[in-house]
Amino acid sequence: MHFITVKSYDELSRRAANLIAAQVNIKPNCVLGLATGSSPLGTYARLAELCAAGDVDFSAVTSVNLDEYVGLTGDNDQSYRYFMDHNLFSKVNIRPEATYVPSGVSADPVEEGKQYDALIESLGGIDLQLLGIGLDGHIGFNEPDDCFTKETHPVALDESTIDANARFFASRDDVPRQAVTMGMGAIMAARKVLLIANGQNKKEILEKAFFGPITPQVPASILQLHPDVTVIFSEN
Asked: Which among 11, 67, 112, 127 is annotated as catalytic?
C-alpha cells in the first residue's frame, strides 16, 4: 500500500488525476472504475484540463461506475449517470457508449447486478478503480455489514450515508434509501486501486480501514488484502 498525505484538496486532485492519466497513457484502451460524490470532483476537473491540453486521450477508454441510486433515471440531476455525464464524460473525448453505470430503474435489481458483473468480466476486469470512502468506511455503497458481499447488489443505505448525501438534495427526505452497488469482487479484482479522501473528518476512518482489523463492519478494510492500493489523503 502506498499512502500519500498532501496539504490541500487541489494537490490531492492533481495527483489523483495524474495517476489516472498515466494509466490511460500506458494502456489507452484501459477500463477505468469510477466513483461519484464530492471527493473526485477536482480530479475529474483536472482530467478534463489534461484532455483539453492533449496530455491524455480517452477515446479508447471504457468506464464502469461503482453505483447508482435505486429509483432515479439517468436524466435525473441527482442520479450518478447525470453526475458523470456533467462532471467528466461531456468534458473529455470518451465514447458515450463506452461509459457504464448500473441502472437504478431495473425491474429486478438483483438481475441488474448479475448483468453488471458479467459486463465487467467481459471487459477483462478493471485496470484502475477510483474510490472514495464514507465516514462509516463504505466504498461504493458497500455499507457496514456482517459479511463482505462479492457481487454487484442492491443495498439499503445506512442512516449516516443518507445524512452525508442529504446536502446534494432539496431535503433529507428526498435522498433515495436504496442503491445498486458494485460488490467487493470486482473492486478487489481491479489491477490497481486509487482511494482519495479529503479533510480531517476522514482521518479516523482511514486509520480504522488501513491500520485496524479487516472487518466487514469497516468495508474499506478489505483493501488491506489488495496488492496495489494507493491512498491519497489531503489534510485540508
From this structure: 67
